[in-house]
């Protein structure tokens, strides 16, 4: 009898003699235990038949990167503690950034308001009530200069959560650098620049998919020459998960988006061995602690295989899935908000055990509004405690080899691949999005989850169980309602100060270029430096590209 | 609201339509109180995904002096819960913004022919209330959603490449119901083939129906379709075909109303329902 | 009689998971849901409510812009002659704003953690009156 056969026999005996009698007297808490993607969770996991460490798991820093993208991971350098922030005016945001940098944060992450994300100036009728709410309002290069006042761009890495208008904001960042005397070649950071997930989960799209993909490849091309250390896309699964997808869908749809971008870049003449190194990803860290750890490992392995086998990439560095993680915002409850500190701690720990390159932890009061300085400090401390006090950062992939974790990693990789093949059959991600396939899958998961909560199949502490009558806290951060008026006045003044004829001419040049196939970045950069507003530039592109309307999916 | 056309009270129309949707007796009374008018009903049908809504959106807004347009978009009710998700307004941003256009969504409420139970009365009410052109967008045409042919003066059959339209549509004889055929999403590959296949099939059946191309997202071809609609209406009018279609519509309207009234008042009487359904299905064959 | 509900996302907020899940639940509860999609102006919301003659108007707002948007919608509804239609709002709305909104005429505010069942019940109860 082989070792494994003996093991299985002993396991069967254990089940018979120990487990079954126990179950007769004390049944398990549920009839079935399931993962978020409806996979079974067994009572016990034991070693797999074949030890496939070499073939399937491998070493950190080597293909297929299951255990991590660097050989020594956090022993060499901890993950970047990067808290997303930005609200109201550029001045206030600038103050918050300087505070966070002084408190030990190592990179900046900028949140923009909805009008900025969707290409509307603060004085556009569509912007009413929205200016400065979910992030900072940037109407022109002037605001960008204020945002980074006193922050040395050659020493700080900046991540900008911007998609449809990424080209414009990137151009502004370059221009600010220039004014500081920093060569674009030295700039580091990331722009999210992931339009596909906007259509399926986040909603800040402007143009139809084809034109959007063109803008994205223009950015890839421009940066490969001029900003070699800048990450030009953060292929995002965070929002897809927030929209209701389960963990497998999160991997599948994110990687499918990645495939579409890589293909588009290749079609635009770029070398995947080169720009593959500048791709980064952005994932969610949700409640299922063990599942999330397996998810990150499965994603790394699957992406490496895709880059190698599907796209023929040969440079290992271009096969690495490097990612930022944010703890799941939708898991925060407004009820008993202090519980959220605990939730975030577990989610953050899962991300670290999953090998994330950078991490944002949510603040406990975010179910109702923007975080206060106090609550955001606790969120940062959560990361610092994990890093310094728990010891988990002292060895690489500590949960590797845990039987359940490896099994889950394998299963999730398989199931994600199934989805990707299905999307291939539909003609690729852009087609799948047009057809509404992805959106429908996500909505079905979201609905199922909500029903599970209402049936108490899924318990949320403080919400459907262990609830208490409570007064909702009234110490929320309030935005200055005068922000909108101040921005409007700023724009008015700007329009009087600048050379309007030059602006008009540069916008015309941009439109002409947009009708052709030239790279649009230089045109946008010129317009930005002449203090054309964000809305003016976006509208010029709207005139040429048109606007997207959402797919009807129910 | 000052964005509405003076002369047509959208609030009143909207409220009356609700009565008409729920109470056939009252519907007949309301309609009877309004003078008859000349108005045209344009049916828009085709597979889901062909772009019916965005095409209707464009057509409804093309400005022709003083003409007022209504759009009724029908979506299926859930056979299990009786509820419905009516999402056509999403695709009709222009029409819903245009002050001259009235857009109303309706659920099929158990009807299987692609229409809703009150559609005949609703359309007649809208026509008599002052709407010159009424677009009725049906549930996507599979094999059985063909009732539109009894309701509309002319039917636009919208097809698009890549939906398997060529095989499905033509097999099912759905070609019979179209007066104008539109190949939408004409920028996609396969549009040419679909257009020529459609023309071939129409030729075989000896009918000379127009086959047009459009891109409802970018707006190309839409003006031409609008003009074709008016031309076809004109020719049907002079040939007498319009009059006979409207007589048929009237007949269907009366039968349908009778059926609905019976349903509303004598819901338990299966035999009576069966009889009426049989009559409805077989009249005019 | 079928209950007709308008579910709209006014303003620029693109997070429609809540609106869509609620729309599905209402449909599964037998209601007819008119779903207008994203990026609705207050004007287009009111126009839809008027043309569709809905029993209840539902807004979903998670961007924090609720005060301005809701007061605008209420005002436009009154001007259009449909000020009597109940207006519900769901989303990220702090307690004191919810109080103020209710005083201004919003029928009910559904904050984070609200169950689908309570929304359905509230709508049915409101329409019956």
UniProtKB/TrEMBL annotation, chain C:
CDD domains: MM_CoA_mut_B12_BD (cd02071). Keywords: Cobalamin, Cobalt, Isomerase, Metal-binding. GO terms for molecular function: cobalamin binding; isomerase activity; metal ion binding. It holds the Pfam family B12-binding. SUPFAM superfamilies: Cobalamin (vitamin B12)-binding domain (SSF52242). The keyword Metal-binding applies. Residues 2-129 form the B12-binding domain. InterPro entries: Acid_CoA_mut_C (IPR006159), Cobalamin-bd (IPR006158), Cobalamin-bd_sf (IPR036724). Its cofactor is adenosylcob(III)alamin. NCBIfam families: acid_CoA_mut_C. PANTHER family: COENZYME B12-DEPENDENT MUTASE, METHYLMALONYL-COA MUTASE, MITOCHONDRIAL-RELATED. This is Cobalamin B12-binding domain protein.
